[in-house]
Amino acid sequence: MRKPLIILAKLVVALLSVAGTGLLIFEGWLIWHYEYGIGLPDERKLAALSVPAPACSTSNQQTYVPLSEIPPLVRQAAVAYEEPEFYERLSLNPLIELVVAITHNRGPRPSSITASVTRCLISLNPACCRGLDWHIGNIALMTRVAKTLSRDRILEIHLNESYFGRGSYGVGAASTAYFDKPLALLTVDEIAVIAALPRMPTLLSRRTDLAQDRRNAVIDRMLQAKIINDAEATTARARPLQFREIPPDNATQRRKL
């Protein structure tokens, strides 16, 4: 009776050993796959993006504006609307945020700005990811972006590489496309429109009624963040929303967008 038990115990130990080895091999494959296998930019490539310059857009419609030249209110409005705690939160790493959320018994805060930069960088290699790889690859790359790039640089890429509709990439091009003026001359209500565009660029560029609703939502966020006062918010909400008319030679392009 004792001998069969010893044989069974040895068999169980052997199976566990094989299973453990298999798990180690699988873990090693996962690490290799998401570090190198699917073509995501590694930390060395990301570090090369730390200087102010286009990161992933090749559109000739892009007008690149360094963060230092973007008016403070434009930067603040984008942060207030997309991710109010962008500069204050402990980490932009989605895995660390998940741990912090569980520890504090709350839902994880979205990393909208870092996520937009991550999608931008993934787009450099269209064949990179599909299905589950795309979702896990996003988390892996967001972790690298948060570790490698400063928050100012992440925000700069977001403001310059995001699509704003009307064929424009970045706040500089959007300011011209919608209001025919440079960033420095935008009013509070116009800044609020620009901040709202990246979430729904195509729809908001065509529906001024929806754009006005989103504009007012951004104005509310700006007021909550105390970057504008009550009088400025009231004046901005009251202003009629009017986009620049698209020149006739661009009408065909607009229908395609």
Automatic annotation (TrEMBL):
Pfam families per record: Transgly
SUPFAM superfamilies: Lysozyme-like (SSF53955)
Pathway in which the depicted protein is active: Cell wall biogenesis; peptidoglycan biosynthesis
One term of GO molecular function: peptidoglycan glycosyltransferase activity
InterPro entries (alphabetical): Glyco_trans_51, Glycosyltr_51/Transpeptidase, Lysozyme-like_dom_sf, PBP_transglycosylase
Keywords, sorted A to Z: Transferase
Domain Glycosyl transferase family: 58-222
CC per GO annotation: outer membrane-bounded periplasmic space
Transmembrane segment boundaries: none
GO BP: any one term: peptidoglycan biosynthetic process
Protein name, as recorded: Glycosyl transferase family 51 domain-containing protein
Organism: Bradyrhizobium lablabi
